[in-house]
Amino acid sequence: MAIGTACHSQGVGRFACAQAGCPDCLETLLRENKGLIQSVIQTQGMSGIDYAVLVQEGRIGLWLAIVHYDPARGYAFSIYAWTAIRYRLWRAHFYADRVEDDKNEAAEAG
After folding, report:
1. pTM, rounded to two decimals
2. For 8-29, what is each residue's pLDDT tens digit?
3. SS3 of the chain: helix, strand, coil, percent, to 5
């Protein structure tokens, strides 16, 4: 069963349409590029964080990449999105470590 969209934008035009607020184009781009999230998680070796949290952070990174992508700069979207997703994952990893350190300090003090 094929999922049809009301918007018929394709290629680079789909990014402009999604950035203009088209939910169909945004959802299509998220769905088409969700494999990038899995790839980044696997290659970055993120341990100690719940997998669901990593996927959610990856989706936020992918969404940000779609919203801010500018094809005129000459980069492939996959490279731009990879960087945005990786940033969100490492940010989540940093904050998870920080929370864990705070818990350990509180336990030692208490």
Report:
1. 0.79
2. 677 778 999 999 999 999 999 9
3. 75, 0, 25
